[in-house]
Amino acid sequence: xxxxxxxxxxxxxxxxxxxxxxxxxxxxxxxxxxxxxxxxxxxxxxxxxxxxxxxxxxxxxxxxxxxxxxxxxxxxxxxx
Length: 80
Prior knowledge:
The chain crosses the membrane at residues 12-35. The chain is α+β, with helices and mostly antiparallel strands.
C-alpha cells in the first residue's frame, strides 16, 4: 500500500503521547504545590483593616456620588 519512502512512522506520535501522559500530571502537581505554598503564605499574613472601599455612582442628572460599600462591611463582619 505504501512505498517504503512514504510509509507512516508510527513511533513518533506514540513518543509524543507518552511524554504528554507523563508531563501533564507532573505539571499539574507542580502547580498545585506552588499554589498551596502561596496560599499558606497569604493566610499567614495579618489581616489589614486599614482600607475603605467606596463605590462611585453617577446619578441621572450627572452627579458623582461616592458611597461606602456595604459588601465591604459584611466582609469585615465575616472575618471577625
